[in-house]
């Protein structure tokens, strides 16, 4: 069956500098094994499958990596929204989309310079930073704090003393348990971003993600809870893997918003 198909670049400062996403619009009738097999074929970080929404939801999405289905992910949320619009659909409420996914309903604001989604609720737990640093093979003297975060995916977030410390970490030196999603982040001294972020997924082997919307969303909730998101922030991610991602964080009316540029690079049909 012929279905609308898009490939997009999300969070990049230019085409090809963000995180790639495949989106199938009109995925009704596809089986879970079929979706997983196609996601494995694309070999992109994630592939999203959209079907008509129910109730207030404009559409529903299922998100797959090449190996597993995810309950939520950030760059597929923004990319799916823009692919759904590019396919000719019209929001139920002008300027706003409601996405249904495994973590519930996610609101996407279309009225700004870039689309933004409201970060889902995030569970935050502080952990012993020096002990975790030693476990991971990091220098405890360069670690400020550490938290376990969950907003669908589980994250181990380690705040380093600086963005330079984040950049200096060598993946091959880390001692990560299987399945850990490690977020390293630290304040930048200067430049166009406030923080540098890296996300390393221990599959194994460890793989670094170009730009990770859901991790940045969780960090936004952490920052907001600490009173550190009083003004909009820009998170830079991807330099370690040759990308230039920018994630925009802000808080309004008690809700954290996560935004970034989305570009449709390929549009057509796929036979699935």
UniProtKB/TrEMBL annotation:
PANTHER family, alphabetized: ANTISENSE-ENHANCING SEQUENCE 1 (PTHR13774:SF32), PHENAZINE BIOSYNTHESIS PROTEIN (PTHR13774)
InterPro entries: Phenazine_PhzF-like (IPR003719)
Secretion signal span: none
UniProt similarity note: Belongs to the PhzF family.
Name of the featured protein: Phenazine biosynthesis protein PhzF family
GO CC aspect terms: cytoplasm
MF annotations from Gene Ontology: isomerase activity
Pfam families per UniProt: PhzC-PhzF
Annotated catalytic residues: 46
Organism of this sequence: Wenxinia saemankumensis
